[in-house]
Amino acid sequence: MKVVLQNLTKKYPSRNKNSRGEVVAVNDFSFEIPDGQLIGLLGPSGCGKSTTLNLLSGLQKPTSGRIFFGDDDVTRLPAEKRGVGVVFQNYALYPHLTVLQNILFPLQNLKGKDRLSKSAMLEKANEVARLVQIDGLMDRRPSELSGGQQQRVAIARALVKMPRILLMDEPLSNLDARLRLQTREEIRRIQRETKITTVFVTHDQDEAMSISDMIVVMKDGVVQQIGKPQEVYDDPVNLFVAKFLGTPPINVFRGSVRGGRLYIGEDVLLRVNGVPDQQVFVGIRPEGFVLNDRGAFGCALGRVEVMGRDISVVAAHPNAESPTVRAIISAENRANVAAGEVRFDVKPGKVFLFNQATQERIRFKTDGRGSDT
Ligand code: ADP
Ligand code: MG
Question: How many angstroms separate the alpha carbon of residue 46 from the centre of ligand 2?
Fold first, then answer.
């Protein structure tokens, strides 16, 4: 089912009694989610992810804007009539019911013509239990399950009515690291098998990148960028998006453009044709550095960490926005980095420029370092 968000806005009255302002939790959000896709809604805490999800589920009503499921305008439709399945971070299972009873619960609440026979209900419950691989645990109570198993039960309960849309709000946040990895792959598999249009909320960029067909990056209620994970990573529209995606994070420096050349300190990193002279933020991805004793860019060497396939060069630079600069270098290219200074060339496609005032991306064309090196 295609889902359309049309100029969706949600304002809350301010919690601060002394201020008359309001909190704009979601600000003019427009997006068309293609049928059958998994969308990762990504951003820091408080950016409006849960509010967006609650608007889709019907738990909250928008201040303005509209929501369509397919061609149906569901903006004013109550939650129980929308045909959505919702999974929360804290599972929200009924503790006194068994796994089977928890999964059956949404079916038993159906009224009138939607109500199934008892055997049809059981069949459906068993089917989704198999799908999420908890069919061996049907007689247990939630307290007798691990966190990962409880979350599978919650997913089964959300799926049993075959919802038009599946909504998941930080579903993996209560799981330990290893289970989180495993469960996210499970969610991906289940979503692929059922082909239910899914919105997956997370503050974890790694999680969103790995699981999503498309990601939506939000900040302060405003959508920053929408795209395939790799496209957003390779082509961020502003400094916020560039910094939010990627581990280790992008390295940010204060630099300047003078006469079509990009400077950090006195080092000339690249020609940047067509960019007017100005102060800029320079973002360089960790994998954008190439070790070269006569490279364009010098940093003070901190230490070298060997990580198997790659080595990580930890350095420092007076113009860097953070205390350490991190370069990830393929282990084969290991050079002599014993000296106090380490020099790099940079890969132009891994270097992004941003306006220092607006933090918007400045695009450039380059032919490398130029002839004067
Ligand atoms: P996220 O899920 O991304 O952490 P939320 O959607 O929960 O963000 O919140 C977005 C903003 O709206 C935050 O500033 C939050 O404090 C505010 N907010 C959320 N719910 C309410 C509420 N019921 N009343 C007032 N403000 C709220
Ligand atoms: Mg939230």
Answer: 7
